[in-house]
């Protein structure tokens, strides 16, 4: 085979390859993927020694994190020049003769300096009173309260085990405590008090291929409108499966605009059919002296079903001797989780095992509880 001569004009230069690689790295560093996060190639992962623990002091952690993120991201253009110096011996000529590279060099030097001056202004006299997060908190304070006192209250609520924390993307997180709704972003922290906020579900979009490989997924855009003077409204975006968690934590109803339809997963569709069929089964009369605890599945609702062999087939269903411990929803989810996920048409006619004693039952054996008067 004859050798085909290479056209020097069609060969990609090392500088171009380096530029493409560095640009790709910067994009994934600023908007990290799960692989970057798992490897710790993020601002939080690299500077964990300086940022310390978010759980101990949430507000000051966000102040430090926003400052470090600004500085690190502002240094990225300068990093391009410095690494290019190591790879190319003619970079000094390139910077002088090329007006675009010369302008980029000046920008890469000035940008970090401006960010450092901004952070010094925020931390004037070491108080952080000029930081945007501190100014946001100050709008919620009365004349006798400082933003530091308010941050202490928020830190206590953040350490609570019943807060709702939703990782809505790799760079955004939504946190709902007893009194606050917060959105964590790379450079800022949006805060709203529940008492003077209105949540409106204004948009829902459906994606047939999700990032985590779960197939069809629906995302909801919720606007947090606040009546507090000087506090701007903001949007939060969450998975439709997490909507009920947020709805349960917020003490105000979330308004849903007309025309928005929630997408129901296969399990949710099955639960509706499961509950309809269970309600047709003969009830189990609960003895007067039997006390019910919370459902051991969700620890929220009260047990509402009892497994009683009602089907006429001698096999494979067996008798269950467990006392009522599950609500209808948790029993339905357990039933669905034990089925062949690629054959949903067979779920209703299939069997399952009791979560505790492993006795076999079908949907006809799930009896609703009925208390004696």
UniProtKB/TrEMBL annotation:
PANTHER family, per database record: E3 UBIQUITIN-PROTEIN LIGASE TM129
Pfam families, sorted: Tmpp129
Task: Report the membrane topology from the UniProt record.
Answer: Multi-pass membrane protein
Task: Tell me what this protein is called.
Answer: E3 ubiquitin-protein ligase TM129
Entry's localization field: Membrane
Q: Give any single GO term for biological process.
A: protein ubiquitination
Annotated organism of origin:
Nezara viridula (Southern green stink bug)
- State if Heme is listed as a keyword: no
Name the residues that span the membrane.
Answer: 12-31, 67-87, 99-122
- Does the entry feature the keyword Acetylation, yes or no? no
Provide one Gene Ontology cellular component. Answer: endoplasmic reticulum
């Amino acid at each position: 085979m004859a050798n085909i001569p290479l056209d020097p004009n069609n060969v990609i230069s090392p500088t171009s390859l380096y530029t493409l690689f560095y640009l790709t790295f910067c994009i994934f560093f600023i908007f990290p993927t799960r692989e970057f996060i798992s490897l710790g190639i993020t601002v939080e992962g690299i500077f964990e020694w300086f940022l310390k623990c978010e759980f101990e002091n949430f507000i000051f952690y966000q102040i430090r994190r926003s400052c470090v993120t600004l500085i690190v991201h502002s240094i990225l253009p300068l990093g391009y020049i410095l690494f290019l110096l190591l790879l190319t011996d003619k970079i000094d000529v390139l910077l002088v003769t090329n007006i675009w590279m010369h302008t980029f060099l000046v920008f890469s030097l000035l940008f970090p300096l401006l960010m450092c001056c901004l952070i010094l202004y925020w931390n004037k006299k070491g108080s952080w009173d000029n930081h945007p997060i501190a100014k946001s908190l100050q709008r919620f304070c009365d004349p006798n309260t400082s933003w530091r006192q308010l941050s202490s209250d928020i830190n206590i609520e953040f350490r609570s085990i019943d807060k709702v924390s939703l990782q809505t993307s790799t760079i955004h997180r939504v946190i709902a405590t007893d009194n606050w709704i917060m959105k964590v972003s790379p450079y800022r922290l949006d805060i709203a008090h529940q008492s003077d906020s209105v949540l409106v579900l204004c948009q829902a979009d459906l994606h047939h291929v999700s990032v985590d490989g779960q197939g069809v997924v629906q995302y909801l855009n919720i606007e947090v409108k606040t009546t507090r003077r000087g506090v701007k409204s903001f949007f939060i975006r969450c998975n439709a499966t997490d909507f009920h968690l947020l709805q349960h934590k917020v003490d105000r109803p979330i308004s849903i605009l007309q025309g928005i339809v929630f997408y129901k997963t296969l399990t949710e569709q099955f639960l509706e059919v499961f509950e309809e069929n269970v309600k047709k089964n003969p009830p189990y009369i609960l003895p007067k002296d039997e006390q019910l605890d919370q459902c051991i599945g969700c620890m929220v609702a009260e047990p509402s079903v009892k497994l009683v062999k009602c089907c006429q087939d001698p096999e494979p269903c067996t008798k269950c001797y467990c006392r009522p411990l599950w609500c209808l929803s948790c029993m339905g989810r357990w039933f669905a989780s034990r089925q062949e996920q690629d054959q949903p048409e067979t779920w209703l006619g299939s069997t399952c095992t009791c979560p505790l004693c492993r006795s076999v039952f079908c949907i006809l054996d799930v009896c609703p509880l009925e208390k004696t008067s």
